[in-house]
Design goal:
This protein has three domains: 50 residues; 48 residues; 45 residues. 31% of the residues lie in helices and 33% in strands. It is built from three helices and nine strands, in the order E-E-E-E-H-E-E-E-E-E-H-H.
């Protein structure tokens, strides 16, 4: 009988009660076994390290559209490491990252130029809205002159 122990980094580790060994497989017909759970985890880590060749790439900030540095690696937990333009290495946490990054490609420059033009139009529209609201005849409750009238 096989009992699922853990799904470790995308690979299921089972305990076989018949031969009292831990088994795992990377492909449906490629089952491997080890005497200990730790040995299975180490073998999985080694397999991923040998077969996951990471190729660094330049990274663009989505919010600014500018080149921010280079993604130089991927940690075991799946988080990426950014080396910024000053040479500082930063771990990118998906839940704490206030900015997102994409691969920098020159052919995307036109997209980000268009985005910048659209953002400029948004700022112009906001300014127009503020100016329009200022022409309203009602009193602004935060106007300092109202406080002096009391």
């Amino acid at each position: 009988m096989q009992i699922l122990i853990e799904n470790y980094r995308g690979t299921e580790i089972f305990f076989s009660t018949s031969d009292e060994k831990f088994t795992y497989s990377f492909e449906p017909f490629d089952s491997r076994s080890k005497l200990s759970f730790a040995a299975c985890k180490k073998a999985i880590d080694d397999f991923i390290k040998e077969n996951d060749k990471f190729i660094p790439f330049d990274a663009r900030s989505i919010s600014s559209g500018k080149l921010e540095g280079k993604i130089i690696g991927k940690r075991k937990d799946g988080r990426y490491i950014l080396e910024n333009l000053k040479g500082r290495k930063i771990v990118l946490y998906d839940y704490a990252c206030s900015d997102a990054y994409i691969e920098y490609k020159k052919e995307d420059n036109k997209i980000f130029e268009t985005r910048d033009l659209m953002l400029a139009r948004i700022d112009e529209i906001r300014s127009e809205i503020v100016a329009l609201v200022k022409t309203a005849s009602g009193k602004n409750i935060y106007d300092k002159r109202l406080a002096e009238e009391k």
